[in-house]
Each structure stands twice: as structure tokens, then as C-alpha cells.
Queue: 3 jobs
Job 1
Amino acid sequence: MTTLQHDSAGHDSRDEQSWPYPPDPGDLSRRIIKRRTELRLSAVQVAERAHISQRYLEYLERFPGRPTAKVLRQLAAALRTTPAALLGGGADLPAGHWVPAGGRIERLAPLECRRLIAPGGIGRIGLITMSGPLVLPVNYAYVADTVVIRTGTGSPVAAHATESVAFEVDRIDDALSQGWSVLVRGQAHPVLQPAEQQNLLASRDPRPWPLGDRDLYVRIVPCRITGRRILAQ
């Protein structure tokens, strides 16, 4: 693959040339795009804040790149994160590993809690089993004010699909030392009607990351939603 060379400001150091095709993004590319999307910033805005060319930023978002330490620091500052986070440092550590002590907590209204969990993603379901409490990470979707999980018929979630459960979603931002957590408590119900299953498939199918057959949909009808947000001082 042809590699573009850039100076410390991120500008092309030789004549304009076409990028290789097709795009082949690396881990850094995905982390830049993810963080920029979280902050709702355009490529133009990030490039201006990082003092690099928009073309170079677009290149980094499309292909594996090796920006200089200076450019990486500028990018991290523009994205309100750290160079280590952009490079994947701490990916195997629990969230909040570098968060300093101190901050204030505010309670979230149910409407705000619903807004935060509405996009779907990864959450944790809490079950009471014969051997004690069990908490499992799951992919979920938020459909018609209910949490929907897709699982296998022999899974622990399926075994407790008609019981009262707890479901939690959180977001921790190490760079800004802040985050939020939403807790849903309610009754679980298996989705057995084919028409209802088709509606879920057509709207927000919560596709699990692991491979395997996961044909059982479980819906959690909230009876109580609470949340907290921690803000850096």
C-alpha cells in the first residue's frame, strides 16, 4: 500500500496524489472517528482544532497512519482525549482507571435516562440465579420504551426470561473524568409472537457480537428507571 508522507503539521510533503483504494482503516482510524462522532464534530472542525489539514485527517480516518507525537497530541487535544486513548492504551483496563478522585454527582430524571439509553449498544443484565446474583454484558436495543435483548435458548438470560431483572447501561469518559449510569428495573418477557419478532427485526435488531444461534428475543418492560451523572470538578 502506498503511504503518504506528512510534515509535523500534517500537510502532504509531496505533490497531491490519489489515496489507495479501497479504504483500509486501522485501530487509530476507528478511534478517531468514534471520538469525533461522540463529540458531534465535523472533520473540518477537528482539523482546525488540531492545526492539521483536513485532507490529512481524512486520510487518518480512512487508512492506517503513523502521525508524529506532536500531531497525535494535537489530535487528542482537539478530541478532548489522550494520545494513549487514541492508540488503544488501557483498552484491557476497566473504565475509569485514570480518573482522579473528586467530582459531583447529579441525579437524572427518567426522561433523560431514556434519552441516554435510546441509541442502544452494550449494557449489563442482572439476574438472580440459584447460585446467587449474576451480571452479564449483552447487546441491546431500545424499542417502544422497552429494552430488547437477543439471546440463545440455552443461555442464562433465556432461563430467567419471565422474571424481574435489572439492566444497567453506563458511559465513562476517562479523558474528561465524567460519565453517567442508568439503571432499569422491570419484568422480562420472551418475545414469542412471529409478528412481534418481525417488528423488532424491522426496527432495531440488537445483533449480538458473539457468533452462534441467538433466536430468542427478551423484552424488559421498565417499572423504574433511575440514573446518575458524575461531573468533573
Job 2
Amino acid sequence: MAEAAAPGDSTGAQDSSVARRRRWTLFLGTAGLVVVLDQLTKVGVDSLFALASRSIPAGQPGGPTELVGEYIRIAKTYNDGAIFGLFDTTATLMALLTLGVVAGLVLYVWRKGAEVGSLVIGGLGLVLGGAIGNLIDRVRLGYVIDFVDMGVGDARWYAWNIADAAVFLGIVALFAAALLGDRAGPKTGPASGAT
């Protein structure tokens, strides 16, 4: 004769199911928000601004448009390299690499999502959204639209977009979680009620 389940067993399974749903909501919700913001800003910048060279003074034809003085400017470029334009490569190769990253992130959250906390899941969601945002450009256009130009004088950072920023912030979140700790699940100890 089969034994009846203990009264607390179904509650634990329900709690686990709810926690898993929350993690997927955070992961996919963060990624979705990044993709929407990234694509909206790229479409807006692409339709409103001409291509710009950062070597031409701001305000002149073909030069950047100042937003906050020389510190933050719009300098639209078409980038067929990787994040911040760091590596010169083809859009097809970058698209394939990005698909691998996307698959790896989803697989990781599928297998380990219940074991990590919100900081890790949120960080992974930022990376996923950034990867998908730039992947959409590569598939649709063959390049990525970068447009934020930051710096002082001739000391400028690489041009970037919302997707690049999300990937960067996601990596920072993952480093923070590694340094500070970010584990899921209830704390156990003397106060947990175990006898």
C-alpha cells in the first residue's frame, strides 16, 4: 500500500514552483525590457541622426550632436564588430556566437536558476537582453547601431547602445554577486524551527 505524502510536502513543491516562476519572470522580463528599450532607441536615433564621425567637431556636418556638452553626444555609427566595437569581425560570425550565448544563458537558468538569487538572475537577464538586442540588428541590418559617445575632449569611450550597456551592467551584477554572495532559498539555522 502506498504511503500518503506528508502534509508539508505539497507546500514545499508549491513554494519551489512559485520561486521558479518568479526567477523566470525576472530573467525574461529584464531581457524583454532591455530589448524593447534598445530597439526603440536605435530606431529613433537611426531615423533622426545622420552617421557621424567622432573626429569631426561636434555641430559641424558629419560630426556628433552634443546632448550634455562634450561629455555625452550622439555619434551614430554602424558597427560590425563586438560590444563597443572592440573586435573587427563579420555580422554572421557575431550572430552565431550570440546565439550560442543566448542558448547558454537560457540553459543555465533552466538548470541552476533555483539555486541562485535575484542579483544573478537579473544580471543574466541584462546580458540576455543585450545579446538579443544586438542580435536583432545583426540579423536585420548586418551591423549594430551604436550612438552614445561619452568622454572629455579627445579622451572618448567607445560608442555604445542600450544593449551594450545592459551586457556591461549584467556582468557587473554577476561580479557583485560573486563577491558579495547571492544565493536563493531559505536560511537554515537554529531559528528555523527544526527539532
Job 3
Amino acid sequence: MIAFRLPLLVSTFTLCLLVNLDSVAQEWTRFRGPNGSGIAKAPNFPAQLSAADFNWKIELPGSGHSSPVIWGDRIFLTATPANSARRAIVCIAATDGKIVWTKDYETAAFRQHADNSYSSMSPAVDEERVYVWWGAPEGSALVALDQKDGREVWKCDLGPFVSRHGPGASPIVVGDAVLMNVDQDAPSSFLLAVEAKTGKEL
């Protein structure tokens, strides 16, 4: 067993799966993995990577700076199509790279740091739902989607997000709660905890 970084390479429009997910002992539920370290364990991970190590490779429907998350045989990530401010959460089958479903959210364009993107927020996932936060000056929301079909289960409107650099925070799941740090330029920053099942504020 060796330690390795998340077994996915994400470039601007490409996702490559490098290892068989059956070899991963833990789900990759949040930004930088189960405990935020960015490290997991997998046997037989190649020290040098080449195209021969890829199980599959697909073109993504957009770019973003977020990290993928994994539960079982499904990968979830966020993306923004070129020349747009639309955000999408994409569900991909880890076995063959096929896109299972995509859920789009429209937003108006807004100024942000040159190194940021409209899809910088990583999703979080548990056994039933995938959670994503969308932040924008006109409003922000924490959303839960059904893992199976992308149906919106609940949505918490969190008000305008004010930041000259743009949004980038990501939710995490702790037990039966979803935690979200809404840290912004305005004096209205806050830490939120909601029930994972209902979105009810805790």
C-alpha cells in the first residue's frame, strides 16, 4: 500500500481515471478527501504515469478549479462552459466515464480574481446526496441533489456573497450535518450547519 493523491487528473476540459476505484478503501467525500489531507491509500499505484495507466478519458462540459468527489462508482464535479457564467454539477460513472446526469444553475457574470473561476467550489457527497454551494454577488445557495438522478432535494438561500476575489469555499459532511463556511468581505460572514437530509438549519 502506498499513499497517493486523488486518483483523478482534471485539466481544463478533461478527466482521466488512473486507478480502479475498487482499490480505494475510502470514499473521497470532500475537498482534499476524507479528512482534508489530500492523501488516500491504494495498492499498485504506478510511480510513473502514462496514457497506458488511464482506464478512460473524457471531455468535460466545461472548466473549473474545484476538486472531484467520489462515492461508490460515481464521480461528482463542478464545471463552467466556456464564455459563460453557468455552473454545472456533473455526475460521471467511474467504471466507464459516461456522464450519468448534469444539473445546471444559471448566474449573471461577475468580477472575480483572474485565478478564480465560476466553478471553484468543490462538492461534498454522502451515501444519498451530493452538496454544492454556489456563490455570487446577487445571491448564494447551498444545494443538495439526489445522487441517483440529480434531482434537487433541498436548497438553502444564503443571501448575497460579497468578495472581490469571488467564491471558493466548499461544504463538508460531518455525521448527519452539512457544514458551510461563508467567509466574505462584508461583515456578514458566518458558519452554517444544516441537516443533511432536509437542509434545516441546526
